[in-house]
Model the fold of this input.
Amino acid sequence: MSIEAALKTLEADIGQEVGTSRWITVDQPMIDRFADVTHDTQWIHTDPERAAASELGSTIAHGFLTLSLASRFAYDCFPLMPGQSMGINYGFNRIRFLSPVRPGARLRGRFTLTAVRKRTATELLRETKLSVEIEGQDTPALVAEWLGLAVFA
Done:
């Protein structure tokens, strides 16, 4: 598929939900590993006993842990298009953390294509609305406007 054909295909999907990922469980060991890697060991994430006595009632996942799962969610929803050699995370326009993620919560990503344009002769810039849902809750963990490049050979 040429980049022009891919652009036409994607333009037809603007405003449409383009994918929902599989569920991922966020447990305390995952939260603890994230804390170790990022050196963010604040007690609200890593001390279940102290966190249980707080107004939140339990530890919660780091917002950046929840955001970091976006890449995994995208693998479920954005397979390479014919002729595409790779996808690249280009950044975010907006990120909001709306609801805490507690240990044992199951999360998934829901993507809606909001814009696409040809950036270079080999790159399409795709903007998607990402909502990270928490199973059984109405308010998502986060919402974001995510930019990604689809790179063509």
